[in-house]
Amino acid sequence: GVVLTHGNFLSNVDSITEAIAIGPKDRILSVLPLSHVFEFTTGFLAPLSRGCTITYVREISSREILLNMQKTRTTVMVGVPLLYKVIYRGLLSQIEKLFAPLRAYVALARRLGSSWPGLARVLLGSVHRKFGGKLRYWVAGGAPIDPGIIRGFGSFGIRILQGYGLSEAAPVVSVCTLEDDKVGTVGKPLRWAQVKIEEPNEAGVGEIWVRGGSVMKGYYNNPETTRETIADGWLRTGDLGGLDAEGFLTICGRAK
């Protein structure tokens, strides 16, 4: 097991809420198990620290989630890519059932929405009402998300912010923000995280190493694996990636 201290969690929460502003007016819908550090930190501790309202779904199904979003008028939700994929497919399926003139209207609105998200929220208000009408953004993590899904929802005026992390880092290392977003990346490192690419190849891709206040104390009763994973404070993530000229981190696979 991963040993995380209160200090690890506080470091992560402070950096998350600095990068992505949330407050007492936000209504968070929690859909992932709290036993996992991803939901525990991003769906519980971070919102709690800023006085948000948190609602927990009874079951993880698209129907239950949509009903809760409508009932609570959710503003923010954290989820895994598979969840957003299911919701997106369901949305497209409903659009396909519309009469031809309405489908043409939605297609035009989406083309406009790809360039002007605010306009999409007006032209496609009925879509936003399906999600409660007050949605600010969704956050995706836990696995890579198809950039096409991010762009697809973006054409409806719905933002998905992709992040990256691992349990050993309590867990968030980087995240795209409303102000600083690049589709296809996992955003820039949070304030707590010093990130370096170890032994990069010609394309600038190497193992991602992380150092800072959120790095775990070690593996429970496993000093040997701890020494193999943490060297001079640097957490060897085992993930391959690269940093571009603007500081955005991209994940390319696994090193081991």
How would you describe what is shown here?
This is AMP-dependent synthetase/ligase domain-containing protein. It comes from marine sediment metagenome. Residues 1-220 form the AMP-dependent synthetase/ligase domain. Keywords: ATP-binding, Nucleotide-binding. One of its GO terms (cellular component) is membrane. With 256 residues, the chain is of the alpha/beta class. The protein has a single domain, classed as ANL, N-terminal domain (Rossmann fold), CATH 3.40.50.12780. The protein is 38% helix and 24% strand. The chain contains 9 helices and 14 strands. The strands form 3 sheets. Strands 3-2-4-5-6-7-8 form a 7-stranded mixed beta sheet, sandwiched between helices. Strands 9, 10, 12, 13 and 14 form a 5-stranded antiparallel beta sheet that branches. Strands 1-11 form a two-stranded antiparallel sheet. Helix 2 (37-49) links the parallel strand 2 and strand 3 (53-56). Helix 1 (6-19) packs across helix 2 (37-49). The longest helix is centred in the middle third of the chain and has 16 residues, at 81-96. The model has no long low-confidence stretch (mean pLDDT 97).
